[in-house]
Amino acid sequence: MFSSEGKRMQGSDERGRSPIVDGIEAIAVVGLCVAERRRYAMGLARDRGFVFVPAEQTEQGIEAIDRLVDLVGMTSGVHGFVLEHGEGADCAENIGALSAPDSRAVLTDLVCVLDLACLHSDLDSEERAGALVSQIEFASTSALVTPDPADSGGIEEAIGLIAHLAPEASLFLRCEGAVHEPVCWQFGHRPPDAGWTAILNSEFRPPARAGGVRACRFEQARPFHPQRLQAVLSAAIGEGFWGRIVRSAGFAKLASRPYVTAHWDQAGTLLTLSPLSVEPLPGGGPELLALGQDLAFIGFDLDETGLCEALDRAVLTDAELLAGPMAWLEYHDEFPAWDSAHRG
């Protein structure tokens, strides 16, 4: 899965990969470090014999990219494009646009360029952590750039984190200007699975090189008491009581909002709960047992037992559960309105 010799090695799961490209090939390059992202994208274009398209142009949208492909794509000797995207680019949106049936270019690889010198500071940044995690999770290739190849500890941590966040991505350590070997991922079929989805689907296999990174799953049939959950979040995300939680995601229910299932989405210090569905009012009885949590956690030195025990203490007690949803609606709930964020 990883090579320090500058050669790409396949991930453990080949689903979604294909050697066949029907159309003009496009490789998208993302990354928060502008200089390293551009340097890698330009090197990739030279290596492949592709046309380099800078972020200033891709930011104009898929229509501008299509026009460029129409103008240049049929030129003799042009085999494809390397599309650099700025740090504000939406990976899901770009994948959708470049996988659409009417797209002139076919996305075959989404490369996330990671500067290991900035990795931890980016994860600590409320403004950058979400973008960083999203780029890693959507990437089919992660290219690691390190200012100190001798920093084996930092490299191992990065490898472990990426292997948890994006278990299907190929890992490549950039050495002396080299670029990774060709990847052909069928994004039109599906993007690579994020680690948290693999954990919830019971498909995640811990990597051999974890670098102190661990993952765990929390399942609980009962809804959270909002005040007790808020206390756990402050301790877990704000103070790191059970390790440094880098990423958590899944599905949750607050007792104070009993008829809404929420998508739990946390990266760094920022947690967002977004409504997924509003359910019909239960008639009482068995329907209440369908309430609950299914969450994946990824972090450094994660104390799975301590974290899960704390979360268990945050759900409703027997007496609170029996009181029913009309009583739950009276609970003091300091969580922001849906689509806003709780800061740890």
From TrEMBL:
It holds the Pfam family CobW_C. Coiled coil: none annotated. Transmembrane segments: none annotated. Residues 213-315 form the CobW C-terminal domain. It comes from the Bacteria. PANTHER family: COBW DOMAIN-CONTAINING PROTEIN DDB_G0274527, ZINC-REGULATED GTPASE METALLOPROTEIN ACTIVATOR 1. This is Cobalamin synthesis protein cobW C-terminal domain-containing protein. It comes from Brevibacterium iodinum ATCC 49514.
